[in-house]
């Protein structure tokens, strides 16, 4: 299954015959579908679809494919993306001082779990530079203050452009991005250390302990202008009890944060997520 | 979505164009697909598919549909089933003395969670007849001994035929069916009170306690001639500790058994399960 | 272990020697401890303890025990309860129109999972009276309007007194109790159909669906004047996906509500819960 | 709570007054108990206890404590251990070629989650030496063949002695130890990549896939002469579906292996585990 494939993510108004038309389009050009999943949201009348097919005997070149598909997409009034499996997404990791999410993603990347390139790490602190060095990744330290935030974001945007980054992963970056930044760079995944919408904002473990919950969680979501209100990609939870103090919650939470963020990044890299109406459809 | 629908379950050798042909078949007859899911098992080269579409404007009558589809299916070398949403499957519950799975399924049935008819309860003990009476369901008591087992199974098969039963649910029946019986009536779902393949056979909770496991489970599977080795439909687990004695395991396990069996029955009634190679594909 | 036992729940300022003094008190009166669990909250300096011992050879009568213990408790500045295993707590179930939590608790009660008496069901609707009749439990229907709320609560308090109720279980009662009522009757367990503090208040499943969460939950807590803010006893969760509409969330949630409420009630009936600082210590 | 503490783990025949005698022993010597947990196995009549107390004002020196306790223990016919919080257990990691469990434990160790010393890594392959170097840990490569197994185990025992190792952690070592070795060095924790007792032995993920289970697991246990039959310390599970092939199971399983092994090692290092009758009591 390491063959060359194309993956189409498409959403359009629901109407009879969409599946037939898309499948026909691929079949008549001699593509062999290896994964197809769809969802219809009946309340909004939206049809969402992921199709992946082998390109081995495909009769269209990539430009021809894009051109031919665009014509069909226009008829369907569809928004869409097409990704080719030999074009690895380029990922930038943004961190602060905590290393657990960073190390976890780097380890999964090196072990082959995450198919992408990681050319860039950005941090507001110099602490994790040795890890970047160890993995041979460029590390840029851009400390943030109230005064320099906008200027630093401009510099960060320039770095994202320079390194041709497709996806920013906030691996415990712990800084709020401006609305302007989020508007200019749409593909940002954040890990929040609570079971959203419980405990948005700062210090969720302290507040979870104070509230006396019996389960804590972590949430990976796309960053939007509204803090902690972006489309949720993945969540997971773990039991706690009265024996767990705040430090225990933080420790147990780290394990959650690592796996939840890693799962979300992997789903995105495999082009399995469609966003609509501040929600995600995950074709897992 | 309470519209009249047809559901096609199909498995056939994988080849390019299957999705297109099936979708085209439905579309050109003016069916609107509301659910489609597929799976390709690359090791065995098998393609498996579930498609559900609305029949409101469908141009073919049911006999015409079956006839037309059968021709396409033959080309695809497919095995298949087609179900119509207004034909409720008929279910028989087989029980012994424990009432928790029986009551749970009957409650879900009455509350509308399980779309089926339940005209028949069979038991080897008279104990649960009052429950059958309360729900207005015929109750047949067929006590099993070593001597009469084959004769009773013949009587049971006759009852299944008489009541036109599509699915037998062993809701803690606790008797082993003969290979002959299983061969004659294929649609049987059993609940086993362990996390199979751990602790097959008798007294799984006692053996789980003795082994000192930290998690116990329950498994819903199709019954086959080999005891507890049929295709697994659904499993779930719950944590236990050294504080839990065998009675606690039995109590905690009852909650598992109820939900795991109910989920499996619901999936079957919605025609979401395909079996191949002693495994299930569950289009949930 | 069905022997006659006494259970002491105690909380007091932490100091050296508490365990020794309590254990010594029981031992010198020839009680055999069969369960002991303790917790020290170091931030508040509070010591919390549950001890259960066999009364078979205990040298003190119950009045003597209470009297002798009270003297020691005064030295320890302790608040405490002592419960005897042959005095079954008396439970009132409050319901509205939904039957799943009611039926579940009644089934567990009849099967011996819940050691208590259930002499009273109160509802603001007549719908579930047949279930009360079937289990031989008195059913009182007290419809609530804005105008009669206070008067009806007075009538309800009178019923709780008349039936000598120790614990009220709001099994989907769906009405808010006044601060006055909660102040007058402290032992009330409520089931909320969300993973609190996410989605407090009305329509949590609708809001969970709108927010696009990947996991939903249920929470059993003691009722306090602040709606949905009382001490949490138990929580559990289940995964959902984009395929689940609101009706699916409600259906999946029902299973959660049943088990979470049942676990909380069982823990309370076994005197395993201590409340302090709007949190619970659960000696499970 | 980073004060100096002593932890007593004790098991003895159950009889009245044990808790009182142990608590009294600590109290009269001015120890302040900060954690106490106990369990009585009524079927075997065994009492098991963990007590941890602060040594700040304790009146006995360590030799005096051991001497005085030994006398009481003899009366109670107890087997016991006493550990002091400033004596860090010394841990040896045994690995093969897979790095995920090794890296995970080393990361937790460096971040302070695991209070121990790790002076030694043993492997039958040289592959992971760079990781040992990076963390400044001695690495000994002892390749195993059928012929040299006994000789190598002798060398390994010598290393364990030389490095004064208290606990061996088989972090995916993938070699079977001889009965002789296990008899000579009792504290060995192994991680098995299945939900034991399902799929003991080799290739559990392949066999889980073949069996079509819907949940896979991992098990941390003490190694005994019988392969995969030692006392279970911790288990956890994750859902899988027909979409997961063997590689997916291996990938998902790695996450389980890491956390399950780490939890077991942490519990052991905190002296929270008592073994009896091939089972564990975990005072978590």
Automatic annotation (TrEMBL), chains A, B, C, D:
It catalyses: (6R)-10-formyltetrahydrofolate + H2O = (6S)-5,6,7,8-tetrahydrofolate + formate + H(+). It is an enzyme of class 3 (hydrolase). Its EC number is 3.5.1.10. This is Formyltetrahydrofolate deformylase. Belongs to the PurU family. Residues 7-90 form the ACT domain. Keywords: Hydrolase, One-carbon metabolism, Purine biosynthesis. The keyword Kinase does not apply. Catalyzes the hydrolysis of 10-formyltetrahydrofolate (formyl-FH4) to formate and tetrahydrofolate (FH4). It comes from Synechocystis salina LEGE 00031. GO terms for molecular function: formyltetrahydrofolate deformylase activity. PANTHER family: FORMYLTETRAHYDROFOLATE DEFORMYLASE, FORMYLTETRAHYDROFOLATE DEFORMYLASE 2, MITOCHONDRIAL. The active site is at residue 228. The lineage of its organism: Bacteria, Bacillati, Cyanobacteriota, Cyanophyceae, Synechococcales. Pathway: Purine metabolism; IMP biosynthesis via de novo pathway; formate from 10-formyl-5,6,7,8-tetrahydrofolate: step 1/1. The keyword Amino-acid biosynthesis does not apply.
